[in-house]
């Protein structure tokens, strides 16, 4: 069940990161929290479009938002970002270990 | 232009990684090259469906394939995997630096 949930979270996170506007929103939020309008400012799109991208990011767990009065503040969720990173890192290091073993084997064969 | 191409490649790579079957294919290929039927064996899907997923991975640059006789061999492209990883790592470390600076600031304020 835990594995299924992690798998599903990875689906949503990589899906969220597959769009350049959403990546630029993640990039902005890694420099600190921002309101929705601050997030929208550098993007050439309507506010509703920004909100839609924000919902994808929120659903993936990469971003959380909280509302105070009329302002919604968005912030990055570093643990989720780390989860996506770790999945790739583990695959890459497994490939590098494989390559090291192959190197050792060829060295011994000489 | 280079930035646009990298951005587009990131779109395709994260999109490719957003599916659990494609992630398990990447996982398998990180342990060494495999034929299409070897890749298909642990997956509960038809061969044409596997080929379709493989095409998404190939288009993203994460996997390359070569044909010898009737056998198509698939292998991981570690540089592409590293590009996707690096994008996340850079964002995460930028967030951590921000947090460190905040910590220093609060320390000085005391």
TrEMBL record, chains A, B:
Q: SUPFAM superfamilies annotated for this entry?
A: Winged helix' DNA-binding domain (SSF46785)
**Domain of life the protein comes from:** Bacteria
One Pfam family of this protein, by short name?
HTH_5
Query: Which residue numbers delimit the HTH arsR-type domain?
Result: 2-96
Q: Name one GO molecular function term.
A: DNA-binding transcription factor activity
PANTHER family membership = SLL0088 PROTEIN, TRANSCRIPTIONAL REGULATORY PROTEIN
Name assigned to this protein: Winged helix-turn-helix transcriptional regulator
Q: Which organism is the protein's source? A: Lentzea tibetensis
């Amino acid at each position: 069940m835990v594995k299924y949930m992690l798998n599903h979270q990875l689906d949503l996170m990589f899906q969220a990161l597959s769009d350049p506007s959403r990546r630029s929103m993640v990039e902005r939020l890694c420099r600190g929290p921002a309101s929705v309008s601050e997030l929208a400012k550098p993007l050439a799109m309507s506010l509703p479009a920004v909100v839609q991208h924000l919902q994808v990011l929120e659903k993936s767990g990469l971003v959380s938002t909280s509302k105070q009065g009329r302002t919604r503040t968005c912030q990055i969720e570093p643990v989720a970002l780390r989860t996506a990173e770790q999945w790739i890192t583990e695959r890459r290091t497994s490939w590098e270990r494989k390559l090291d073993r192959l190197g050792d084997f060829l060295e011994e064969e000489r």
